[in-house]
What we know:
Blueprint: H1 15-22, H2 26-36, E1 42-43, E2 49-50, H3 53-67, H4 72-84, H5 100-105, H6 107-119, H7 123-136, H8 139-160, H9 165-185, E3 194-199, H10 207-218, E4 222-227, H11 232-242, E5 246-250, H12 254-258, H13 263-267, E6 275-279, H14 281-285, E7 296-297, H15 302-314
Parallel strand pairs: 3-4, 3-5, 5-6, 6-7
Antiparallel strand pairs: 1-2
Helix pairs in contact: 3-4, 6-7, 6-8, 8-9, 9-10
Bound molecules: cobalamin.
The site of cobalamin (B12) has 39 residues, from helix 8, helix 9, helix 10, strand 5 and strand 6.
Amino acid sequence: MVTIADLSDKPKYTIKSVSSQTGVRPVTLRAWERRYDILTPFRSENKYRLYSDRDVAILRWIKHRVDGGLSISSSVSEFKAMQQAGNLPEIVPNLQPTNNSRQANSTAHYAQLLYKALAQHDEIAASDILREAHAIFDLTTICLDVITPCLIEIGEAWHRGDIRITTEHFASAFLRGKLLTLLQAYPFRRGSPTIIIGCATNEQHEIGSLILAVLLRRDGFRVEYLGQDVLIEDLIDYARYEHPALVCLSATTETSAHELIFMQDKLSKIKPSPLFGFGGRVFNVRPDIRGQVPGIFLGENLLDAVKAIHQLLKA
Ligand code: B12
């Protein structure tokens, strides 16, 4: 087992070389350094950045987490926590494509193509890219490894000032539309357990919840999707008549996470009581908030959430 700590910290690679070893563009590398304080590369006499094998391994580890759907800030926080605990992770092997056909089939490649099409407001190209991806990958892979990283890149690009807010809105509206079409394409099964999915009060970020709804409906659950900014009191009232097996709400911001604090208590007054599950970005970035919300934290990513829900409802 080789950990990042085992690698040399001798400066030797230029930013261009690091970019081709890790697949992270130089502009993104500089932004990550500036914004997240991940690395402080050595500066050569002519002020060029020089990176060590350890730096490359750190970047590859972070990129691997980001490609897996975690946001850059969560990935960095996770890395820093391990670093502070003196427990650096194992190295991630270099999976950079070595030839064009491998590249053409990688999910990162499709996420990038989708990002470019959406950044240019090219709806036709974006639809074609998704159609092509559907022919190669399964639904879970498309949702988690193409759509999610594309959206995260959209957010990062907006944050860097590379794209305007209008473009970010265009991209999320486009992807939301595609996901809703998928959701409605799956049959609504009356006999199976009902799961109600939506976003906490004040929460506008709905794509995570929507993906979860699509994946669970594909798996045969009866899923009702409520969308953004759900009014808790009214939902409780509805649950009293509908008797769902599970109510699942997501939060991205701290304000909306706080809206969930009394949810479990209110649901427990309904007999039989529905289970209450939650998740979303804020609980990954601020794990301490998980403990403030009574209920079941369903996991840091949507794949774990799907698995946890299968387990819960099987029991
Ligand atoms: C699209 C978007 C929007 C759209 C949302 C449209 C829509 N219909 O959903 C709009 C324009 C509405 C928007 C608004 C805002 N946004 Co915004 N947005 C984004 C963006 C670009 C993508 C979010 C997204 O859909 N990601 C895709 C999902 C699937 O990824 P994810 O959330 O990381 O999901 C992972 C986990 O969180 C988890 N997960 C997700 N959902 C769930 C649910 C459950 C149940 C479970 C278990 C797990 C889980 O699984 C996923 C991994 O597998 C992000 C950038 C980013 N880095 O994410 C910013 C981002 C989330 N927004 C941000 C901000 C600041 C805002 C605003 C406050 C901006 C403003 N000043 O108005 C408002 C907030 C509005 C509100 N009250 O909620 C910040 C949040 C920073 C923070 N404090 O945490 C981000 C990170 C941008 C940034 N880099 O600063 N946004």
